[in-house]
Inverse folding.
């Protein structure tokens, strides 16, 4: 595809007007002020009229539980522990592998609709989740979740052999679109012995870790009581978990000492502003993290605690709520927020060649229609995108150079069937709980 005469947010997220962007073999092969000449232009195939459009790096959802589309609207108005113990875990116990497949496929459709090309997913039924992602055309870092309450070697848990098999089958599959991460759900759902073993395996294999940390005040403070004053991240560091590339979701109650540790270890903090607000968990100290140099990325969390995969909604919250909570209107700039949703999210997944509109990078792109009333006047399209834009402004989403959503159509997904399957399966599970 050749995007013609289109405005873009470049690799620095600065506006460049009237550009031509050529996509070939999954990459951005051309970026210039004029159309490529003659036969070169024809080699790109379709010419996409960019007038009235804005081309931006697509979004990378740094923390998700995709199959939880089944629970959308189910567990409401509850704090985290009651939400988990009384509603979510009993529901999940009734979910079949095929339930996970259809729920993940619906999540992929929803994410593609809103400009997301890749997500980091923590859940169960990895075979079925991988199948859904591959069919959708999206990318994902997938980890198999298990709760490690019993202090025993990781090798004695069924998930040890299972994840090793997932790595063998799927890591790097679909031309690198699928990556397998390891998972520790949280400090309060695990034990030191097993966590040490998992960290050693991850380090040996050169893979990545995905975990929850300091999501609620009670989780944070109870960890300190259990581990001689260590916060969850300090505890994980003490047993070697943070010696591997790690994405820590939430970090809502992290302390200044945690920020220094995250910078030292290169930990990515995946902010989930909508989910944290909805569950009454608080606000991650994102301005202080950014000031300290922490790698901040952005996630939606699951659909039982956010209710939608519209990353532009989370982007808006990330850029706005800290101005109110700190009383400082200068914190978390639109550019910082958009970087968290794009390039930093890609880096949190180990996707070094993604997340920027730059020649040579993977063609992970979103096109927004900027002719709507909320975009006028276009004094600063970056600011418009963050504060006035909507996920519904996305008209095309491209993953690795392949269109995964365009003007209401999903090339890899029968979205009507996915919707119907999820409706039916949710009703069945609720009847069984």
């Amino acid at each position: 595809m050749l995007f013609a005469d289109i405005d873009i947010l470049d690799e620095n997220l600065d506006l460049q007007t009237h550009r031509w962007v050529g996509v070939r073999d999954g990459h951005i092969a051309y970026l210039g002020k004029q159309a490529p000449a003659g036969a070169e232009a024809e080699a790109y195939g379709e010419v996409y009229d960019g007038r009235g459009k804005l081309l931006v790096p697509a979004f990378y959802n740094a923390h998700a539980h995709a199959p939880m589309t089944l629970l959308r609207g189910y567990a409401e108005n509850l704090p985290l522990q009651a939400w988990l113990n009384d509603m979510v875990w009993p529901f999940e116990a009734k979910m079949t592998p095929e339930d996970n497949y259809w729920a993940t496929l619906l999540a992929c459709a929803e994410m593609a609709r809103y400009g997301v090309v890749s997500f980091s997913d923590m859940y169960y039924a990895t075979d079925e989740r991988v199948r859904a992602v591959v069919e959708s055309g999206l990318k994902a870092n997938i980890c198999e979740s298990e709760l490690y309450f019993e202090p025993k070697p990781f090798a004695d848990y069924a998930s040890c052999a299972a994840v090793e098999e997932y790595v063998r089958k799927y890591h790097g599959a679909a031309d690198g679109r699928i990556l397998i991460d390891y998972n520790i759900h949280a400090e309060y759902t695990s034990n030191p012995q097993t966590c040490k073993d998992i960290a050693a395996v991850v380090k040996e294999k050169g893979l990545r870790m995905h975990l929850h940390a300091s999501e609620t005040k009670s989780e944070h403070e109870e960890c300190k009581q259990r581990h001689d004053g260590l916060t969850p991240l300090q505890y994980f560091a003490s047993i070697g978990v943070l010696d591997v590339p790690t994405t820590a979701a939430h970090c809502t109650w992290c302390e200044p000492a945690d920020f220094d540790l995250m910078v030292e270890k290169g930990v990515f903090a995946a902010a989930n502003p909508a989910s944290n607000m909805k569950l009454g968990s608080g606000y991650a100290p994102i301005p202080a993290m950014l000031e300290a140099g922490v790698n901040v990325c952005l996630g939606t969390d699951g659909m039982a605690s956010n209710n939608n995969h519209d990353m532009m909604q989370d982007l808006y919250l990330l850029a706005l709520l800290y101005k109110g909570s700190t009383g400082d209107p200068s914190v978390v700039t639109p550019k910082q927020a958009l970087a968290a949703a794009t390039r930093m999210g890609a880096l949190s997944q180990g996707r070094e060649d993604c997340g920027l509109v730059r020649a040579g990078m993977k063609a992970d792109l979103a096109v927004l229609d900027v002719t709507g009333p909320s975009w006028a006047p276009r004094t600063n399209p970056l600011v418009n995108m963050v504060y006035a834009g909507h996920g519904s402004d996305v008209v095309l989403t491209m993953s690795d150079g392949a269109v995964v959503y365009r003007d209401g159509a999903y090339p890899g997904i029968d979205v009507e069937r996915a919707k119907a399957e999820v409706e039916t399966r949710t009703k069945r599970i609720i009847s069984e709980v």
Remarks:
- The CA atoms of residues 210 and 247 lie 5 Å apart.
- The longest helix spans residues 415-432.
- The two ends are 49 Å apart (CA to CA).
